[in-house]
Amino acid sequence: MKLQSYSLHNYKNLPQISRLSSLQLEAIEVVGNVLPFKTNNYVVNELIDWDNIHDDPMFKLTFPQKGMLSKEHYEMMRITLQHTNNKDEIKNIANIIRKALNPHPAGQLEHNVPELNGEKLMGMQHKYKETVLFFPSQGQTCHAYCTFCFRWPQFVGMDEMKFANKEANQLRDYIIENPQVTDILFTGGDPMIMKAKIFATYIEPLLDANIPNLQTIRIGTKALGYWPYKFISDDDADEMLDLFYKVVKKGINLSFMAHFSHPVELDTPAVINAIKKLRNVGVQIRTQSPILKHINDSPNVWAEMWRKQVNLNCIPYYMFIPRDTGAQDYFALSLENAWKIFRTAYQQVSGVCRTVRGPSMSCTPGKVQVLGVSEIKGEKIFVLRMLQGRNPDWVARPFFAKYDEKAIWMDDLKPAFGEEKFFFEEEFEWLFNQKLTEMETESFE
Asked: How confident is the model at residue 157 (pLDDT cuts 50, 70, 90)?
């Protein structure tokens, strides 16, 4: 099968579009001019149930929906589209809306960009001691876009908000200079949008350098869910698999951080075949997804998904809380409901599925897991812990927040038991202020 992409300019060519109402078509146009929209023939023909379009999770996962913008923002763009065809005017209104949607959450622009020899490496992030994120410039798109995507600014032409790096040598040198780094995560976009020859230009310098501290190369990808033919019948499928085998032969763990948001993505012959091919060359596949209202907010869906993943020799890894950006309000559940769904699903599966962690928030100080709701000395509380932190000493320390039935993100929580701050906040504020001072100093030099 050959990849055929569909976006605002050509999605009406799909025969299935005739099944949509005028309001659904309006929503695609309005929301699709603000948030990124791209799907493909595999998603449309093999994953979406067009006979159940109003409730189909894969349709909502890949096609813009009205509720993904606030009423105010929706009307702003709808009226703009009614009154003008001028692309610059439409883009200006879109950018006003986008900047109100927290385009770079978790301090990505302010705190996470590393330096090498005094130079900022803008296509990289180094938030946690052991792991560096690398955004290859040729990997800044995907086979299809998820409507929940927290990196949506990568895809809407806001250059000042884009991460990308084309310097493989910078990555190699940074890992050599930072022996505490054991893991590189290639992310995007989707690195698997690249041809094998291009991806090899990033991988081979790392292999040739024989870096003793480099233990794991991770690839964050949705390709198994949205285009498994990448590893089956694309013209570079065998070349890409050979490259993966080269990494494994070098003694480096190669891990796919594979995004699957619904069990239907695990059912097609194509994805089953692709997983087998990856496993045959030694690729480890770990699975993760946000918990999303309208998509997978059911314990039965999660339990089924984890079981299917394990049966395909994949390792359930994370359940995330939707990040505080983009269409969060459409997808978000309360933290309590997310935990209840996780717990109920967890209770339904055997120990081999219980490698999964969650629900987890990737917020500015670190990855915070909601362990549950409890009561201590008459006060109802959330029990939390950090799975990752900017300071490793913060990790695995339980802490407590006041119960709030409406809380959907870390910023909504306040410390329990009369405390003014969470245990990590003073140190984090010091780190934040130190970084600001460095940035201000640089601006005067």
From this structure: low
